[in-house]
Design goal:
Helices cover 54% and strands 0% of the residues. The chain is mostly helical. The chain starts with 19 loop residues before the first helix and ends in a 7-residue tail after the last helix. Residues 1-25 have low confidence and may be disordered.
């Protein structure tokens, strides 16, 4: 069959049994992935995996027979199923499930970045653990069956796809209790079985992967239960924060309480506390600097260009969307997917590298949300809509986009932007200027929307610093060796 069966797009063609060299060329092996830094597990070896069936044993023969039988029963729908669960961006089905669940939930930006963070940390640890055991057991992928997607050059037991599915489904069920845990379990089973249908893994491979992933999820959920999220606010403002126009109040016409004032106290992945990178106080209400910031917003809103309006809307992250962290993540996902599908085969990103990158981004934003909410509820800085009216600059002033239900300083969106900027520069160092421009646009979008002051973007620097801490934690990972 030769190298012609190598696919360079998201639609991978099949490589038959006579195409072993081509399958090996799909992407290099990642033998060191089992030693990469984990987030909840102490190491990739923490959770034991049973010995695989002995070569030529009855179970091994039954496994191969099951793969061949599945191949004989394939239909057009089989390819669609396999493609759904084997995309180049391996985390995509589970990330998109989280996007859907966030969009159906009440708007809570730090809660959403927490949810994305735990989901991707779980998948990353599951993949590291599966790779540790792969190279302990060195089980070859099934032979004699045409595959619907290229087999990995790494050992097949346990299945990394199944491990991801087991971890992701169980963590999502915990993070989104309104979703059906049974349906998520069925999705995990379907994802695992798709590898047997594809001819790349045996039933033993996927059963071991699922069990491993679900065990990883149990440990991730135990950490999540102890991080402080869900603590109710007692309704009391801190000392020095009066219930007056000098501090945050609900937008005109609303009596809603602020969104999750306790989120700045949650336990982060790399932060020692939510206040670790707390910025200095913003300009005091009514001060010359504050009035100048207010006048800037009024003047800017009078002359918004169509491009500025487009930018404001693109980055809005309103109720019913994946929220600001999700918007930044979706753009990054495009870059990571491209790294997994284009370029020379020797440098194309492997599945473990893709999953690792997604975890680094989401862990950074998880802590970025905590840091921003710490500052918001340390200072209770008023939003432009309230302050411009209360200062008498324009008693009927309204922003271009609706005012969120939490204080202005510091900007959560700018914090996410700074974290992603630094992390993407680490992952793609030759594109630093591009990521800097993207972060600037996300931060400035809040000015165009009329919902933030210019100085609120100070959180972008905190995002940079959080990303640096995450990078420092994983700098020992030997990628591609």
């Amino acid at each position: 069959m030769g190298v012609a069966c190598l696919a360079l797009s998201t639609s991978l063609v099949a490589c038959g049994d006579d195409g072993d060299s081509a399958k090996e060329a799909v992407v290099r092996a990642e033998a060191s992935a089992g030693s990469w830094k984990t987030w909840v597990l102490t190491s990739g070896s923490e959770i034991p995996v049973p010995e695989p069936p002995a070569k030529d044993s009855d179970r091994a023969k039954a496994d191969l027979d099951a793969v061949k039988e599945a191949a004989d029963k394939r239909t057009d729908a089989t390819q669609q199923l396999v493609d759904r669960w084997s995309p180049p961006l391996a985390t995509r089905p589970w990330t998109e499930a989280a996007f859907d669940y966030v969009s159906k939930s009440a708007k809570n930006p730090p809660l959403s970045s927490r949810q994305y963070g735990y989901l991707h940390a779980a998948m990353s640890d599951a993949v590291v653990a599966s790779y540790h055991w792969k190279y302990q057991f060195n089980v070859e992928a099934p032979k004699g069956v045409e595959t619907l997607v290229p087999s990995s050059p790494d050992p097949s037991y346990p299945s990394e796809h199944a491990a991801m599915a087991g971890a992701a489904s169980k963590v999502l069920a915990y993070l989104f209790p309104g979703q059906s845990a049974l349906r998520l379990d069925e999705m995990a089973d379907e994802a695992a079985d798709s590898r047997v249908q594809a001819g790349t893994n045996t039933p033993s491979d996927v059963e071991a992967g699922l069990a491993l992933g679900r065990a990883v999820a149990d440990k991730v959920i135990a950490v999540a239960k102890a991080d402080g999220a869900g603590t109710p606010w007692n309704g009391t403002r801190p000392p020095g924060i009066a219930n007056s126009s000098a501090f945050w109040q609900p937008p005109p016409g609303s009596t809603s309480p602020p969104t999750d004032p306790e989120a700045g106290k949650w336990k982060g992945w790399v932060l020692t506390s939510g206040s670790q990178f707390r910025p200095p106080p913003p300009p005091a209400f009514g001060s010359p600097a504050f009035r100048a910031a207010a006048q800037e917003i009024v003047d800017l809103q009078k002359n918004l260009t169509e491009e500025q309006k487009r930018i404001a809307k693109f980055w809005e992250g309103a109720q019913g969307t994946e929220l600001p962290a999700g918007i930044a993540l979706k753009l990054a996902m495009t870059d990571i997917e491209e790294a997994a599908t284009t370029g020379d085969v020797a440098t194309r990103w492997t599945l473990p590298r893709v999953v690792r990158a997604m975890a680094l981004l989401n862990i950074t934003m998880h802590d970025g949300g905590i840091a921003a909410w710490d500052a918001k509820f340390a200072y209770w800085n008023p939003r432009p809509e309230n302050a411009i009216r209360d200062l008498g600059i324009d008693r009927n002033w309204k922003p271009h986009l609706p005012t969120p239900l939490f204080p202005a300083y510091a900007s959560g969106s700018a914090g996410y932007a700074g974290g992603v900027e630094t992390m993407m520069t680490y992952l793609f160092p030759d594109r630093a200027e591009e990521f800097k421009r993207r972060a600037s646009e996300q931060a400035e979008s809040r000015l165009y929307a009329g919902i933030h002051w210019r100085y609120d973007a100070v959180s972008r620097e905190a995002g940079n610093k959080i990303s640096d801490l995450v990078i420092e934690r994983v700098k020992g990972d030997t990628i591609g060796r």
